[in-house]
Fold this sequence. Notes:
Blueprint: H1 5-15, H2 19-22, H3 32-40, E1 50-54, H4 59-72, E2 77-80, E3 92-94, E4 97-98, H5 101-110, H6 112-118, H7 122-136, E5 141-145, E6 162-165, H8 173-176, H9 180-187, E7 197-199, H10 207-217, E8 221-223, E9 228-235, E10 240-246, E11 252-257, H11 264-280, H12 288-296, H13 298-302, E12 309-312, E13 316-319, H14 325-338, E14 343-347, H15 355-359, E15 367-370, H16 381-389, E16 395-397, H17 401-411, E17 417-421, H18 424-436
Parallel strand pairs: 1-5, 1-6, 2-5, 6-7, 7-8, 13-17, 14-15, 14-17, 15-16
Antiparallel strand pairs: 2-3, 3-4, 9-10, 10-11, 12-13
Helix pairs in contact: 3-7, 4-11, 4-12
Amino acid sequence: MKMSFTxxxxxxxxxxPMYQRQGAVxxxxxxxxxxxxxxxxxxxxxxxxxxxxxxxxxxGSVASMLFSTLHExxxxxxxYTSPHVSSFTERIRINQREIQEKEVVDFVHDHRAMIEGLRxxxxxxxxAMAFDYFARKEVDIAxxxxxxxxxxxxxxxxxxxxxVITNVSFDHMALLGNAIEEIAAEKAGIxxxxxxxxxxxxxxxxxxxxxxxxxxxxxxxxxxxxxxDVKRKTHNWVHQTLxxxxxxxxxxxxxxxxxxxxxxxxxxxxTLVALDQLIEDGWDKISERSISRGLSRAxxxxxxxxRMEQLRENPRVICDTAHNEAGVRIVMRQVRQMNTGKLxxxxxxxxxxxxxxxxxxxxxxxxxxxxxxxxxxxxxxxxLQQKAARMGLKGNTYPRVSEAVMAAMSQAxxxxxxxxxxxxxxxxxxxxxxxxxxxxx
Length: 441
C-alpha cells in the first residue's frame, strides 16, 4: 500500500540523514551513492542538456533568472534548487509547475528497496529524483543549482552545456576549508572539460584558482563583471530597474526585476553573460524580449522565495535568507538605506555559522526579537541573546519564530519596518505562519 505524500516525507526525514536538520554529519563526502542511484535509474542525468549553477551567494537567484528566461523563450525547462522554503515540491519544477506530490510518492514507492539498501542522504535522494523526473518528462534543458560546495556535491555528475559560479565568500568552512582559495577550489570542481564557464565576480584571491582549473580542462572562461557594468536606476521593496552596459554590442539595456535585493546587480551581470553564451551555443529561441520578460518574472516563474521578499504592509514585513557574512552585509546595508521608520529585526540562526561576524552587522538602533528555528541545528535563543549582548545588542527572546514575528508586528508602527532573517529556516517558518493567517488588509 502506498504512503500518502505527508507519510512519504516523514519516512524520508526519519530514514535519511538531512543536512538542514543535522548539519555536517549528513554530508556524504563522495559521489558514490548518487552514481549508484542514477545507474539504477538508467543514467537520467545524461538524458537532458543542463546548466550547472554554483557559488556562495546568488546561485538561487541566477538559477531562477536563467530558468525564467528559458521558460519565456518557449523551452520546456526544468529547475532543481535547494533547500525548499515552504514545500518540498519547490525543489523540482518544469516550467511553472512544481513536481506533483503523486510523482514524489511514486518515486519513493517504486525505489524503496534501492533507498533502504543504499541509505543515501536526503539531498542525494532529491537530486536523483529530480534527474529522473527531468529525463522522464523530456525537458529541453534543466537548470541545476549546486547544493553545497561543488566538487563533491551530488549534482556534480551532470555533463552541462554551461557551468556558472556566482562568487566565493566564507561559508561552510568546516566542510569546504578555512581559506578563500580552498573554498574556491571546491566551487571550481564543477568546471568541466571543454565546457564554457562563467564566473560572476572577479576577486584577486580566487581569480587564479578559476583560471588554472579552466586552463587545465580547456574550458573557455569569462568573468561577468568584466563584460557588463550594472547599476540600479529605480527600486522599491517589490521590484527594481537595473541598467546593464556592455556585452558584444556595448549598448545600454534596461531590465526590470521582480527581485528587489541590491545584490541582484551582480547576479544580473552573471545571468546576462550566461545567456550570451547560450545564444552563442545555438539556443536561438532566446531573444531580447524573452530576456526582459524572464527577468521581470523570475521570482514568479521560478517560485523563488525569501530574497528581499515583502510579506506584509502596514507595517512592512521583509524577509531575506542571507546567512553568511557577505550576504548579510549587503542585506543590512539595503535595509538601513531603504527604511524610513523604526527598524524591528526578528533574528535567529543555526549553530554552525560564524555568529559573531553576522550579529555585529545588525544595526544597533533596531529593536531586536531573538528566536530560533524548529530544528536540531538551531542556535539556542538564549545563547544567541548572550552573544548579541557581548556586542552591545539587547533584545527579548522568543522560543518560536511565530511568537517573535507576531511580537515585532504588534510593536511596529504602520511606517516601521520588520525584517526577518539570520537563517533560511527562520524565514521559512515566518512565511508559513504569515500565510496561515488571514490576508493582510
